[in-house]
Amino acid sequence: MKSRIGQIIRKTKETEVSVSVNVDGSGKISTKTGLPFLDHLVTSFAKHAMFDLKLNAASKDGIDHHLVEDTAIALGSVIDESLGNRSGITRFGYASVPMDESLADASLDLVKRQYHIINLSLSRDKIEGISKEDLEHFFRSLAQSLNMCVHVSVKYGENDHHKIEAAIKALAVALRTAATLDKKQKGTPSTKGVM
């Protein structure tokens, strides 16, 4: 089986992001974006997906929105690349993850068609220094660039930090399941023969 690894450098006039990933890793992570809560989310995502990940992101224009967005785009793109044609994968994944008083569900299909419904149920305008809309955009940009169908929903909770953390962990655990190689699966897991 070919190694499922990927590497990408995304350079724009606004940011520079470099990411390397091993989907079949053991959760070895190094993340540096300059935004501590973004580092925390990316680290939690990789840890619970059990990916080896090295991510460095730097802002060129000092605008957090661009940094959050480009980090998500680069992260999703490198995972998409590492999954290749997705032959032999489990394809579907589901997880329900609690974080204290909060509960989040994630269901996904690693079909190569992008679709997403994401409801984080956030109430505050900022969580740990990042705007609500940028955090929501992070999830959408990750889903779009990873080229998957995903539904993420925070069922309930009171603390927005806990809601976001439950959501990113649920997404990670569902992705870990879906990306796992299925010994019974021969070839592409689709009746169409292609993803």
Provide keyphrases for this structure.
195 residues, Ribosomal Protein S5, domain 2, four-stranded mixed beta sheet, globular
Structure description:
This protein has 195 residues and is of the alpha+beta class. The chain has a single domain (5-179), classed as Ribosomal Protein S5, domain 2 (2-Layer Sandwich), CATH 3.30.230. Helices cover 35% and strands 31% of the residues. The chain has four helices and ten strands, in the order βββαβαβββββαβα. It has helices at 36-49, 64-83, 132-146, 160-179; strands at 5-11, 15-22, 29-32, 52-59, 92-99, 102-109, 115-119, 126-127, 130-131, 149-156. A four-stranded mixed β-sheet has the order 1-2-4-3, covered by helices on one side. The longest helix is centred in the middle third of the chain and has 20 residues, at 64-83. The protein is globular and about 45 Å long. The two termini are 19 Å apart. The relative contact order is 0.20.
Low-confidence segments: none
Q: Any guess at the CATH architecture? A: 2-Layer Sandwich
Kindly estimate the percentage of residues that lie in beta strands according to DSSP.
25-35%
| Highest CATH level, the class | Alpha Beta
Total count of strands: 10
| N-C termini distance | 19 Å
CATH topology grouping: Ribosomal Protein S5, domain 2
- N to C succession of SSEs: EEEHEHEEEEEHEH
What's the quaternary structure here? single chain
Bin the helical content.
25-40%
Mean pLDDT: 94
The radius of gyration is 16 Å
Number of domains: 1
Largest sheet: 4 strands, mixed
